[in-house]
Design a protein that fits this description.
This protein is of the alpha/beta class. It has eleven helices and 14 strands. It folds into two domains: about 210 residues, Rossmann fold (3-Layer(aba) Sandwich); about 60 residues, Alpha-Beta Plaits, CATH 3.30.70.100. The protein is elongated, with a radius of gyration of 23 Å.
């Protein structure tokens, strides 16, 4: 049976007149790789900070690893790791010095700390960099060091707030391989991201919009629940086709993808309406159905509040 690691009920956070998180219900099971996806300012970072006890909620209940938050936030700190978007270690310390310092903060004994630091230097390809000042590292190297620091004390839960926003695609791929190693070993991960390819890697996704959870499920489930059928318009003049389709009720989103136009609609007869409108505008085009992707889901649930995922 699955074990619930994170449970939030009616969670809200207000900053004056601004509601950053609005009645959020959330559940994450052990060893899941749960992805938070949403536009800038939708409440992802605020939610993560409340879950780890760094920010007091305005309303609602939080339970993480059996601890009530914020009441038991201090006790929880020993069992979670937290990695922020911005590199937060000391840039004037070496790689090894940063890890030694974190080991002392986490209360690891000298022998245990020495073994653990050596293990992480090897696991995250930092051995040759152990004596380098952290401020001189590349973005990908800093990311690996930050991850090593976050898991130094072998936490049961790892919270990562847009950890790959400043690194190249190869470094992102290597980073995610490391995350799945942690999940395979039993660590639960909650990761916020802007990247659709990263979202597809998650075992389950929660999409936030204006502080509310508007979709929740595996990537496959979310794509299967997308209403209607995405359409691809192939023509020599996609910008002209896009202008011709403006205001067509059947279409609620369009985007040019290379030399094609990708359309989203919740109606079953959208294809016929599109073909008819293009013909009336004198645009020669081939209109065909195509498979849904996560970007379609993201656009649908953040633009159309009536298209909702199942509640957690």
């Amino acid at each position: 049976m699955s074990e619930t690691v994170i449970r939030a009920s009616s969670l809200s956070k207000r900053f004056g007149d601004l509601t950053a998180v609005d009645g959020l219900d959330l559940r994450v099971e052990r060893a899941e790789v749960f992805g938070f996806l949403g536009p800038n300012g939708c409440g992802k970072s605020t939610t993560i900070r409340m879950l780890c006890g760094l920010l007091l909620p305005s309303a609602g209940e939080i339970e993480v690893l059996g601890y009530r938050i914020p009441q038991d936030a201090e006790a929880l700190k020993r069992r979670i790791g937290y990695m922020t978007q911005k590199f937060s270690l000391y840039e004037d310390l070496t790689v090894a010095e940063n890890l030694d310092f974190l080991a002392s903060i986490q209360g690891l004994g000298r022998a245990q700390a020495r073994r653990r630091v050596a293990e992480l230097l090897e696991r995250y390809w930092l051995g040759d960099l152990r004596d380098r000042l952290s401020g001189t590292l590349s973005g990908g190297q800093k990311q690996r060091l930050a991850l090593a620091g976050a898991v130094l004390h072998e936490p049961d839960l790892l919270l990562l707030d847009e950890p790959t926003s400043a690194v190249d695609p190869q470094s992102r791929r290597e980073f995610w391989d490391s995350l799945f190693e942690l999940a395979e070993a039993g660590t639960t991960l909650l990761v916020s991201t802007h990247y659709m390819d990263e979202a597809e890697r998650c075992t389950r996704l929660g999409i936030l919009d204006s502080g509310r959870l508007v979709a929740d499920g595996s990537p496959a489930e979310l794509m299967a629940r997308l209403p209607g059928q995405p359409l691809l318009v192939e023509c020599a003049q996609p910008r002209q086709a896009q202008r011709a389709l403006q205001g067509l009720p059947a279409i609620y989103a369009s985007a040019q993808i290379g030399a094609s136009l990708r359309l989203l609609s919740a109606t079953d007869d959208a294809r016929e309406q599109v073909e008819r409108r293009l013909a009336e505008a004198g645009v020669q085009a081939r209109v065909r159905a195509t498979e849904a992707n996560l970007e379609d889901v993201f656009v649908a649930v953040t633009r159309r509040p009536d298209i909702q995922g199942a509640t957690p």
